[in-house]
Amino acid sequence: MKNRSNSIFLILAIVLVHSLNSHAQVMWQVSSGKLVQWYYNGGDEFTGNTLNTAKWLTSYPWGRSLYCNKEQEFYTEKGNAELRNGFLTLVAKKEPITAKILHWEADDHILKCSDKEVGMNKQSFNYTSGMIYSTQKFHYGYYEIKFRSDEGTGLWPAFWLYAGRENDEIDIFEIKGERNTEIHVDIHCPSGCKNYKTTLGMLKKNWGDYLATSSAWHVGLNVVGLEWNPEYIKWYLNGKGIAFWKGKMEFPAAIIANLAIPSNNGPFGPGPDASTKFPAEFEIDYIRMWTSIQNSVSEAELEPVLSGSQRASFPVSNSQLTKRPKPEFKKSALKDEFVNVVFSKASNNGAFISIVGKPSDDFFIEVKDAALNLIYSSIDPKLREHHFYFSGGKSSGTVKMKINGQNLEHKF
Questions:
Q1: Domains of the chain (ranges plus CATH)?
Q2: Runs of H (alpha helix) within 168-249
Q3: Lowest CB count within 10 Å: 48, 199, 240, 286, which one?
């Protein structure tokens, strides 16, 4: 029955690609034997001059530091989340600040963790930092971030989903600056997620671990993705599956990106030492959320990486896993190597196609306008960004592609 349902899914996916109505943003996950289609449902390209506060908070709704985690940073309202050159840059600074963690409480309000008093609301911190927390919650779909982060002991950048309930969290990644060629993936469930047997099937462990990678996170941009389905979750690094968890996370969640500073005696320690350089940065090119539901498309102009721009000057990494620990890496669920292909309309009467992963040599793209005039073509599988523009004020047409043996056609 399993093989039959997979075959039906594949047929439906292929038919859907060839019968699209007009969508401004579409993403395909393409492998030699599978084709999955997603529709843009939210996110941010960070191309403005100021952070969109209708989309993002600059702290947790419950406070400006995770004091129960013994973290050392204070998340400021302004000054540590900067938009420049098409990036959101979260900046950690070594600077003292005395401020209230809960802005709505009095200075002398007593903070508690598990009913244990941990100090007053107004406290002194040695570091300030930046974060974003989405005002909207999202559910099943595909999440991705394109980023780089500085190295250094005690730096803790993370990208994660939180449902607002205790232990209801999906960690798309956590990175430690002193372990700069590793990525930590994890799940936190109300039940504890203790559903993976080890040691001859008798003992159990929580799911989640560090995965070793081929490149350091500070040397170039990488794309990390997460596919959240009702029955399982998959993690991706630059188009390749790196982790698989089977289980149910049922509640919609907020999107969070932050640059934390742990303490030596708290989670993800150690904290900074004399070698850590400040200010330290977690740079985000974009955050995108895609859904499989066609009628819930959120129209927006995604941002191409134009040649000659400062965004284009950033080196792009192609980091991959070098070790595959179990149970996080499940070979049977991660055997397909995907190429992610994004089509989006852009400003100035243009459009672009961006590619994450490695297309095969049979690759081609052909774009025609509504009058069937050829306006763009390419057979270069190494080119990751394809830009084209329309004349006469019109921006409709058809794009045809062949990628990894799959023929795609999209009308826009």
A1: 1-34+359-412 (no CATH), 37-335 (2.60.120.200)
A2: none
A3: 199
